[in-house]
Amino acid sequence: PRVAGLPTEMAPPALSFEFFPPRTDALEQQLWACVRRLEPLAPRFVSVTYGAGGTTQERTHAMVARLVRETSLTPAAHLTCVGASRGEVDDVARAYWDAGVRHIVALRGDAPAGEASYVPHPEGYAYAADLVAGLKRVADFEISVAAYPEIHPTAQSDSHDIDNLKRKIDAGATRAITQYFFDTDVFLRFLDRALAAGITVPIVPGILPVSNFKQVAKFSAMCGASVPAWMGKLFEGLDDDPETRRMVAASLAAEQVRLLRANGVDEFHFYTLNRADLTYAIAHILGARPRQPAAA
Ligand code: FAD
């Protein structure tokens, strides 16, 4: 539909924000400034990504623990099964449960850099659907899983990929969060296909506010998200003009969420990239307002 504005009586949508664990002290400060700026918007949950191997994974655990200890936010810990035995994954999940974490974003993960294709660990959960079932055996977690409006890059076909999403839901997941996309029609058609396949849990669009177009174009090629030509045109000539780029990015994302909202979407997940400003502005446009501090 055409979107001139949103009805003012519409309740603000449910929001969630994704962060990644930073690698340096300076980036750590940037992350926590971002968390504190977004916290008053009272998101339904905030999620923390999980990388491959030792210290990267420890950073996720530490960040999730700090969110529990020091903020009013509800954390959702991403957890992958690539490269780990079932026992190792179960131990991580149990430690989260004991630390008060009740929500896991359950993912397969990708083959390590340098390996041509994904091979399941011999004693591991082979795919995300197996991981979901395993996590449910550990404890009664709330579980979100990944979905791909443009199909996962290595899926055999559209229908295999939708069947896979259905298996993840049947195993106990209660929400799917999508890979980011820029063409709203692609997402809306995906919702129709998922519904036709009997998937009735919320499928939450993953919104990536783009301020560094060049970087996003490069990354999108790897994760199977297409970047429409009109978008390249919008950022044309702005490589050395970050200020204008950010304004273009804000208007682009605002248009995208307003169109989704007008089509009935009432839950949004933001890939914040640990920066608050664009996400905050777009959440504001969607009707989110900072929670008033409790009266003394
Ligand atoms: P699955 O659902 O297991 O699917 C992977 C592929 O295998 C699909 O092509 C599927 O169709 C196919 N498949 C499934 N079952 C079978 C089967 N039995 N036989 C044959 N093929 C099968 N990665 C990280 O490393 N850390 C993160 O924190 C992280 N967070 C993410 C958050 C979101 C919202 C999204 C969308 C992705 C995230 N990723 C993350 C990336 C994710 O790990 C990759 O996209 C990965 O390639 C697939 O993970 P999945 O959970 O979707 O896998």
Write the layout of secondary structure elements.
Layout: E1 14-19, H1 25-38, E2 45-48, H2 54-70, E3 75-80, H3 86-98, E4 103-107, H4 128-138, E5 142-147, H5 158-170, E6 175-180, H6 184-196, E7 203-207, H7 213-223, H8 229-235, H9 242-262, E8 267-271, H10 277-285
Parallel strand pairs: 1-2, 1-8, 2-3, 3-4, 4-5, 5-6, 6-7, 7-8
Helix pairs in contact: 3-4, 4-5, 9-10
Bound molecules: flavin-adenine dinucleotide.
Flavin-adenine dinucleotide is lined by residues 49-50, 78, 80, 105, 107-110, 127-128, 146, 152, 154-155, 160-161, 164, 168, 177, 179, 206.
Small-molecule components bound: flavin-adenine dinucleotide
Mean pLDDT: 93
Question: How do the strands line up in the largest sheet?
Answer: 1-2-3-4-5-6-7-8
How many beta-strand segments? Answer: 8
Using only C-alpha atoms, the radius of gyration works out to 19 Å
Largest pleated sheet: 8 strands, parallel, barrel
Percent of residues in beta strands: 5-15%
> What structural class do helix, strand and pairing data support?
alpha/beta
Helix and strand element order: EHEHEHEHEHEHEHHHEH
Pick out the low-confidence regions.
Answer: none
Give structural notes.
The protein has 296 residues and is an alpha/beta fold. 44% of the residues lie in helices and 15% in strands. The chain has ten helices and eight strands. Strands 1-2-3-4-5-6-7-8 form an eight-stranded parallel beta barrel, surrounded by five helices. The chain is globular and about 50 Å long. The chain starts with 13 loop residues before the first strand and ends in an 11-residue tail after the last helix. The relative contact order is 0.15. The structure holds flavin-adenine dinucleotide (FAD).
